[in-house]
Amino acid sequence: MAQFRLKLNLQLFSQEKTEEATPKKKQESRQKGQVAKSMDLPAAFILFFSFLSFSLFGAFMKDRLFGLFQSTLHDFLLLNLTADNVIVLFEKMALQLLLIVGPIFLIAVAVAVLGNYLQIGFLLTGEPLMMKFNKINPIQGAKQLFSMRALVDFLKSVLKMSIIGIVVYTTLVAQKDYILRLAQMPLEEIALFTWSLTLSLGLKIGLILIILAIFDYMYQRYEHGKSIRMSKQDIKDEYKKTEGDPLIKGKIREKQRRMALQRMMQEIPKADVVITNPTHFAVAIKYDAGQMQAPTVIAKGTDYIALKIRQVAKDNGIITMENKPLARALYAQVEIGESIPADMFQAVAEVLAYVYKLKGKAN
């Protein structure tokens, strides 16, 4: 009973997902769109670089915007209200607005693509777009609302809002005296101060969000790695699918060995001589002067196979000779179907000469 319980416990342990995912499992998850990705990182990049673009192109945008108002008020205000004039006005305004905000849009798109590429590389899959009914399951949705992931997302939001609130508060407090004097300042200075303060807050908040997003990405990588962990049994099953069942592969190799042994035994009757150890090694040699440049090993084996070779040779009248050093050397250095190496020519030639001499006397 205790042994049964131990076996059951080991089976349960083997199903626990404690092992890191294999490369194949990671690739399959990636093809399904299951990757470690922080949605906060591209958003933080867009915010920071958008405000940075405002800072770099602020003068250009100001000149274009002033030019748009000046052109509208100077050139079109006194024109007759006709369809053609309205169309021309809107075309010119649309073109000017496009020139003003176009660079910001391009930078935002490029940064968004870059933020995703840095996390997951190039990935094109339609798997996440496929309809899955468990996504609209209310029970599953309720579980996600009260899951650990939802709690972590809530804490992240609270942390971000707290940090942003602190940054905004400290920045405004530092400019308190200047803000109190705004009512006495010209409109142009108020606009410049507001613009400068907004850019400063945007850059600070964007940089802070990038730092928080990097930590979030590290957490997402940890969670993703945890979600695709495998049990020992999963790894074994994957190995069987990719490499084949070891038992089946063993049976296939055993069958191949038997077939190779059978073919080798069929070649022994064609041999001229079998050189033995006498019991542990047996090597069958054939030489056809018209077709071969050197004697060739057509069969070899040890122990049981050596015994079978000697038996087949005996049944077919093949001469067997005992030569321990030569039998060992041939078995170790020459594979089946290979010619005898030059350093063994002399020894093998003497054996063949003796065999041919015996065959001549017998004839």
Automatic annotation (TrEMBL):
Protein name according to UniProt: Flagellar biosynthetic protein FlhB
Protein's GO biological process: bacterial-type flagellum assembly; protein secretion
UniProt xrefs under Pfam families: Bac_export_2 (PF01312)
Keywords: Bacterial flagellum biogenesis, Bacterial flagellum protein export, Cell membrane, Cell projection, Cilium, Flagellum, Membrane, Protein transport, Transmembrane, Transmembrane helix, Transport
Localisation: Cell membrane
Stored Gene3D superfamilies: 6.10.250.2080, secretion proteins EscU
Residues spanning the membrane: 41-61, 97-125, 146-172, 192-219
InterPro entries hit by this protein: FlhB, T3SS_substrate_exporter, T3SS_substrate_exporter_C
CC per GO annotation: plasma membrane
Membrane-related topology note: Multi-pass membrane protein
Main function: Required for formation of the rod structure in the basal body of the flagellar apparatus. Together with FliI and FliH, may constitute the export apparatus of flagellin.
Family membership: Belongs to the type III secretion exporter family.
